[in-house]
Amino acid sequence: GDSVTQMEGPVTLSEEAFLTINCTYTATGYPSLFWYVQYPGEGLQLLLKATKADDKGSNKGFEATYRKETTSFHLEKGSVQVSDSAVYFCAPGGGGSYIPTFGRGTSLIVHP
Amino acid sequence: DADVTQTPRNRITKTGKRIMLECSQTKGHDRMYWYRQDPGLGLRLIYYSFDVKDINKGEISDGYSVSRQAQAKFSLSLESAIPNQTALYFCATGGPGEETQYFGPGTRLLVL
């Protein structure tokens, strides 16, 4: 079945630092790829997505590019804020099965 | 108003008790899912339903059952709760032709 490997956290950064959270996956075919974010005390919500190879998803200053050759979908942000402190989940969408596979999540802590 | 609601938000119960967690959605989606989240393990799929007459086991269905009472309602039951079912439970929905999932705020369950 599909699988996802995310870098382990917590990732601790100072405000305005550059963020990278690595994500690699194995999947049948070429599913859509997602990053979800979970703020403290809340459910997951979609952060960004990419539906085909070389697509770049972006939202709230975060970006991730669908790399078919390396089966990766790394999340980046040029300058993090304290309000970005959350848990981030990488997830291939499951293709036609509509059963996504979630990574274990990476906790991000941003200090002022 | 939230599109996906879960009740209760917090629940404490004792070993052996039967409890039900409820999920309602106003998005008109056919697909509904139940996940549990444990620290360090990410999200694991318990059950899912692609329409009112469709129920499928997920990765960790043992000890759980579900009921899809209507398109908008999907309930999760723990027939005889045990302490290792202590976790955060999420309901999610999915819309037609898209792989994005929409999550409720979660139910925090403690089994003593």
Short summary of the structure?
The complex is a heterodimer of chains A (112) and B (112). By secondary structure, chain A is mainly β. Helices cover 0% and strands 46% of the residues of chain A.
Report what the structure shows.
The complex is a heterodimer of chains A (112) and B (112). With 112 residues, chain A is mainly beta. Chain A has strands spanning 3-6, 11-14, 19-21, 23-26, 33-38, 44-50, 56-59, 62-65, 75-77, 86-92, 106-111. In chain A, the strands form three sheets. In chain A, strands 2-11-10-5-6 form a five-stranded mixed beta sheet, with no helix packed on it. Chain A has a four-stranded antiparallel beta sheet with strand order 3-9-8-7, with no helix packed on it. In chain A, strands 1-4 form a two-stranded antiparallel ribbon. The mean pLDDT of chain A is 93. By secondary structure, chain B is an all-beta fold. In chain B, strands 2, 4, 5, 6, 9, 10 and 11 form a seven-stranded mixed beta sheet that branches. Chain B has a four-stranded antiparallel beta sheet with strand order 1-3-8-7, with no helix packed on it. Chain B is globular, with a radius of gyration of 13 Å. The termini of chain B are far apart.
